[in-house]
User: Fold Ammonium transporter from Teladorsagia circumcincta.
Amino acid sequence: RTSDDLRRVWFPHGISEVVLITMGVLLGRMTPVQFLLLAFFETSLAVLVDHVIVNILHVNDGGRSLVVHAFGAYFGLAAALVGKKKNVMEMDEQGSIHHSDLFSMIGTLLLWVFFPSFNAAVQEPEDARHRAIMNTYLAMASGTVTTFILSSFVDNLGRFNMIHIQSSTLSGGVAIGRPKLEKRFKLFDTCGVHNLHGIPGILAGIFSIIFALGYEPESYGKTLYHIYPYFEGGPMNGDRNREIQALYQLAGMGTALASAIVGGLITGLILQIRILNQVDDPDTTHGDINYYAQSEFNFLSKYERAREQELLERERLHEIY
Assistant:
């Protein structure tokens, strides 16, 4: 009973995190209306994908690394790929500022308090929760230490990069690879979501395949059937062995990535419809003009201005000829 109640509380929290991760890719590049529509489409698809992966394929994704982190990251990247603009890549004011970096560390510190419980809340039985908490702390600690080392190593003066440190709790040293998307693929990722959520999500999927192959049933006893209920001899009368379960883990990862990319591309195309895509080419960071409306704001004001300019041009040509 308690476990079911926790799942009901945890599930909407996890799905909402999917949208927040996607927004991290597109932050400052879309209007509020576009974000609302994106949240509607993505939430619907994320719930469906979660049902397929967890309830149909019976993939072990306890912390939802595939459904939440990988799905949200690549959904956003696919949507950004469709809606990218050349001038966005040429903006100068893309970096962070000192006080913003310091305040963002508050969120990084809070992760040390809440992330273990996020991963462990819906695990069963009790020893599985204990393993989830310990493994989460060990992963965060090793990721943070490694990031400090690598961040200093790649800097010419041996300094620490605050962006790397912020990302270390979630994704460890992989945050250092962020500029590749911008330079090679012309794909702007505002918050570095690809390295912060995407790569760790894929790594989690790969490791889940390896662990499924390496599990020794005699070492876990009946606890194993809580992790993989469709193993041979489990409560669900399944016929899976380690190799078959590993294939299902691979299928789950493929399902999450494929649905995220296809869904993101389709959603990105929908959001590029002219009546929705009213983001002017930004001359300032994050295009604040799209978020702070004047008193005479009109939903179709952009097109009214264009119409007025067209009429003025016709009058000018009429006077000339």
Remarks:
- The first helix runs from residue 2 to 26.
